[in-house]
User: Fold this.
Amino acid sequence: MIGGALLWRQSDAPLLKPVPTQVSFGGPFTLVDSKGQPFASSKLAGKPYAIFFGFTHCPDVCPTTLARLVKLRREVGSEGAFQIVFVTVDPERDGPKEVGNYADLFGAPVIGLTGSTAQIALVKKEYGIFSQKVGTGDDYTIDHTATVLLFDKDQKFQATIAPDEPDETAIAKLKKLA
Amino acid sequence: MLRPATIAFALSLAACSAPGPKISAHDAWARETGSADNAAAYVTIENKGGADELIGAKASIGEAMIHESSMDGGVMRMRPIAAGEGLSVPSNGKLTLGPGGTHIMIMGLKGPLKAGDHFDLTLIFAKARAHRIRVTVKPAGAM
Ligand SMILES: [Cu+2]
Assistant:
């Protein structure tokens, strides 16, 4: 959870340019798409992307964040401006169909991804994402990092968007991605 | 000279004269849902009278409870509000339940909520009478 702790601290402060000693987020991964097919991170290359980790049983913060990304993408330019990627931190309940239904809700292209427990654990580590199951039975919830990470077209980490960050600064960061 | 009973009566009158809450609720909405069997509903509660508290809710489509999403250093947590506690509806003020904060969590949905659907939500207050409102389901992209 070292990456999680770093992202945590970083998102507390106004965003600083990554300094050389700082951990950079991201890395190659293979997950599973909404059709149940393998999805390699190389598929994202060539176009910037915003990646967000959540779970489909999250009715408030997760859909709000995705709705906001869709809205910001329209404000920045076209749907081609950047890709929106949603990765579940709840592979137990979220299979390809569940992430697909969720991603399709927003009326704009969103890539929904799941994977095996091991695949999800690895991608969480790469992207500095913390998550923890809370409660038992079918109705558990998950505490998780709600920060959006931004990558340029060369898949290099550029910036984060915090959930409570004003639209203006988020838009400025998204415009720089192109 | 006033008899004790008269004094007690006068005091109780004084206590009663504190204005009661005057509640209205509007802009109730919920986001469209996918496969999950839960949803969040949002509403603005206005109070043109004395202070009150929202202490619970009932929904026609599932089990409702008051939840709070909070952010701690970038980590999102969602929890029911503590048992026996309510959300303050200030005197001559309002309480807004909105995305990313306090919301009415509805669990055990029998099917997905589609944009344009409606359902009933009853808001329960500490003092004011329960208030039934109609919730509109909006497209998932709504903010
Ligand atoms: Cu909730």
